[in-house]
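The passage that follows is intended for readers who have already worked through the single-chain material. We present the inputs for a multi-component assembly, then the predicted structure in tokenized form, and finally a short commentary. You are encouraged to pause after the input and sketch how you expect the pieces to fit together before reading on.
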Amino acid sequence: EAGVAQSPRYKIIEKRQSVAFWCNPISGHATLYWYQQILGQGPKLLIQFQNNGVVDDSQLPKDRFSAERLKGVDSTLKIQPAKLEDSAVYLCASSSRPTSGGQEYFGAGTRLSVL
Amino acid sequence: AQSVTQLGSHVSVSEGALVLLRCNYSSSVPPYLFWYVQYPNQGLQLLLKYTTGATLVKGINGFEAEFKKSETSFHLTKPSAHMSDAAEYFCAVSFQGAQKLVFGQGTRLTINP
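Having made your guess, compare it with the prediction:
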């Protein structure tokens, strides 16, 4: 089966610019996650969707970050305006059984550099 | 607060030597436990997981981990390291009833020839 697809793989922007990332989860996976992975750290959950509804966005900096999953399939994560500290890898993951120990499947990530 | 800690941000072993990566969690209820591996410029790949049943779990690439409730640990081992094992390893927990993973800070494994 096809894995989690993310684009772009790399993005370089200047601070105060905006940027968007796209994710297409594994077909049939109702749960979709966006993580931020800063260099040298473990992934940190930004937002979790169940179909097209938000389950958890407690760690999403809502003044500058937004995410949507309008049709319950693919998703976009936007940063506007970007700050230097947003430089990180943004990982998308999906799961079919999140509450019963089902694994999360990860995409390759988008590496963002904010200059 | 529920958390997961990986002891040692960097572990270096010789090729053929035992690999031991440590993971401890903090929770009053045993969680679901995972080990993921991340190769450079790639996403995370599941090595193994524990949900219920046998506490010794075998995963891919010869790795295994043992859940020890009394020690709140889930250490990852491999009897003989291979050069291809060089990567970043993450321990993660999913607390029962929750739908998300909490990751440790990661351990970078280096294999010396």
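Commentary: The interface with chain B takes residues 4, 31, 33, 40-45, 48, 50, 55-56, 91, 93, 98-101, 103-109, 111 of chain A (CB under 8 Å). The two ends of chain A are 37 Å apart (CA to CA). How closely did your sketch match?
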